[in-house]
Amino acid sequence: MVKAIFESLEIDGGDEAAEELEKGSQVVVVNCYPPCPEPELTPSNYGFLTLLLQDDVEGLQILYRDEWVTVDPIPGSFVVKRSSRGILIFIVLVNSTKPRRSVASMQSFPLISVVKPSPKLVDEHNPPQYMDTEFATFLEYVFSREPK
Questions:
Q1: Fold for domain 2-144?
Q2: Computed from CA positions of residues 108, 112, 114, 118, in that sequence, does the dihedral angle turn out positive or negative?
Q3: What is the rounded distance in angstroms from the CA atom of residue 56 to the CA atom of residue 111?
Q4: Does residue 6 sit in helix, strand or coil?
Q5: What Rg value do the Cα atoms of the chain yield, rounded?
Q6: Cβ contacts of residue 45 below 8 Å, gap of 6+?
Q7: pLDDT tens-digit map of 43-55
Q8: Cα distances (Å, whole numbers) of residue 31 to 5, 38, 121, 124, 134
């Protein structure tokens, strides 16, 4: 999937962004969140690209324009999440009465990398929209913005 995204952007395997992502990690996680009397306790995740298969229990939220937005579940469908900033931040709200199940595959950059746009995607008509940022620093900022 990542290769197809890079190909659609006309970024080849020799590109710095593609090489950084190849050094990153891919994790597959199977989750079962039991009913929780304190649904404000929220696990969070991040990734460049996430494929998510979830049940019909609402709970997925993404950070969009500095607000947490609920994504309605579509049972039996994959949710493909990618970010224009390079990293998508999302949380899972547990339900106080029903269990929630999901399977997620997340692809991410290494912590020591600098997140920035590919030079092939930036020019005088398409300037960078965000400053280059060390990935670990970016994550510190994002996790400080999580709901408490």
A1: Jelly Rolls (2.60.120)
A2: negative
A3: 33
A4: helix
A5: 16
A6: 29, 89, 90, 91, 92, 104, 106
A7: 666 667 777 888 8
A8: 27, 18, 36, 44, 29
Q: How high is the pLDDT of residue 127?
A: 92
Strands (E), the chain: 25-33, 44-47, 49-54, 60-64, 67-70, 78-82, 88-92, 100-108, 114-115, 133-134
Give the ranges where the chain is alpha helix by DSSP (H).
2-8, 16-23, 135-144
Amino acid at 136: A
Q: In this predicted model, what pLDDT tens digit does every residue of 84-96 receive, in sequence order?
A: 555 556 777 788 8
For residue 142 the two structure tokens come to 């994002």
